[in-house]
From TrEMBL:
Its main location: membrane. It comes from Sinorhizobium medicae. GO terms for biological process: transmembrane transport. It comes from the Bacteria. GO terms for cellular component: plasma membrane. The keyword Cytoplasm does not apply. Belongs to the binding-protein-dependent transport system permease family. This is Binding-protein-dependent transport systems inner membrane component.
Amino acid sequence: MKPAMKADILKGLKKPPLGPVLTASKILLASYILLAIAAPAIAPQNPYDPLQIYGWEASSPPGTMGGGGFRYLLGTDGLGRDIVSTILYGLRISLMVSVTSAAIAALIGLTAGVSAAYFGKWVDAAIMRLVDLQLSLPTILIALIAIVTLGPGIDRIILALIIAQWATYARIARSVALSETNKSYIDAARLMRLPTARIIFRHLLPNSIAPAVTLIPIEVGHAVALEATLSFLGLGVPIDKPSLGSAVANGFQYLLTGQYWISLFPGLALFGLIASINLVGEDVRRSLDPRNHPA
């Protein structure tokens, strides 16, 4: 096939550019990150401090002037916490949990996948059967089983998300590492009797992670959604450390009473966060896909 024809075919397989939507997503995601970092400085109220929460102002509608000397722009929740402050602090929890769990899951999954490809035999069989078993179950089910077993807490929900996500990285890393183990530089390293750990982490792993790296931003979005789901079900972060999922759950019982703002505004913030992460992650994946850069 001629190079020009091949380029035309690959161009036809490309997805249409996201354009303004992608630009808006990048701006929105950057805004979320900056707001999360600056939350203690810009939030009108510290939702972790009971001395700053006035119970008699619970479920106040948007625009109500509060006893703390500031206006509740988005109202308060059922505990009297300012919803703007809850969203800002909830962003910190959601982003910290999701980024940490996705990074550690990627490290564990990549190491497991590359090790399975390098050692082969029973090591490969044991790791990949575990991966197959985990990927045959819904991710939310695995996270639910893990968090019920481990108990509540931020550290435990991070561990539960790691357990739910590592297998995806392992399968991708193994598929790439299988082809890398047959290349001459790995044979040369073995002939030089280099330590196994050095061959895996210094030579094989760096050449096998490219496809998995493109998966990390998307998995961060999945982790945000998983954490929000677990928190909505009451199995996530403790109630004194609000996340976006628990903020939505706090207003669920008030939906039929007309107090829509308690769940609506945190829900919109959660939707915007997940959507912006997924769109930016998809852009990263396409930009690193060699099929989108024909020679």
